[in-house]
Amino acid sequence: MKKDKLNLEKVIDFKKWQKLQDDLSLVTNIAIITVDYKGNPITKHSRCYKFCELVRAHPQMVKYCQKCDSRGGLEAVRLNEPYIYLCHYNIVDVAVPIIIEGRYMGAIMAGQVKLSDYDTTEGMEKIVTTSHEPLANKVLNELREYYEELPILSYKEVKNIANMLSSLCNYLVEEALDKNLILEMYKKSIGSETQLESSDFKGYTAKNIQNIKKEISNAIIDACVPDFKDDEIKTNISSTLKPAIEYIYQNKSENISAEKMAKICHISQSYFSRLFAKEMGDSFSNYLSRLKIQWAKNILEETDMSVNQISEEIGFNEPGYFIKIFKKYEGVTPSIYRKYYKNN
């Protein structure tokens, strides 16, 4: 997915986002909609309040709403952060920009709330003023009942919601870019014998590429190491200890402590150590070391990953310590083990 082909539909799964958007609206009490860079709606409105719905349906008043949306979105892009502002009816709205690799792709528009502390709005931009326009006042009076039904939040609450939406949006975009890069690489790998080139990574940050490198490493290790469900020892594990063993297999690159395992099993560390030794026939530290060395052997046999990389991927803090433990159990260093295995 090259940068010139980037669009929101390719980056974000909007069917899933719509459900999340609806849930966020329900929890926060604010209306939310997602638009593209032109301001066109990509999602349905989540919790659009009656007052705003009717004003936006008014042939003359809708232009003021559109002007507020446009200005709010542009300011959010300029600042590269959520922009909180007042509409022509002193209703608070928020524009959260969706920016991918420095390019404005759209925005999450949220709001339709009144503030409980309008004294905090000093410095907050009121994009359009219509207080002296007879039509605007007439519409407000006609819809006064619905205006009073708008939810009331403090400025701090609105700001917290805006920051939450921004963080969530950035996370979704980053994750989506990582997955799209994996898909691009996969499609190319099965489509031809051509090696990946630097141009294939244009439009992605170093962080994206680093994440992909990690994902690929994890995938290689998972392919070499058996899953817990396939391990023969699973039938000997009690329900109390099982969460710890599952955690070890699901977090192969973590340097796991007995203290953390005890917390996961909801028991004391001393009881965990006794129970583990009883059921597994060895201390936790010895069991974990032996297991990881077995994983290392599998990886050495099936891949060309360096010893340093294998050490990191299976959770050893230092390659030197990994080599020491490997030699303790196998009698030779990882490099010699690989060389011997390859030659036989």
TrEMBL record:
Record's keyword annotation contains DNA-binding: yes
Chain ranges of the HTH araC/xylS-type domain: 242-340
Pfam family, one: PocR
Keyword set includes Transcription regulation: yes
Family matches, as InterPro entries: Homeodomain-like_sf, HTH_AraC, HTH_AraC-typ_CS, PocR_dom, Tscrpt_reg_AraC-type_HTH
Domain of life: Bacteria
Keyword terms, alphabetized: DNA-binding, Transcription, Transcription regulation
Protein name in UniProt: PocR ligand-binding domain-containing protein
Organism, scientific name: Romboutsia sedimentorum
Lineage, opening ranks: Bacteria, Bacillati, Bacillota, Clostridia, Peptostreptococcales
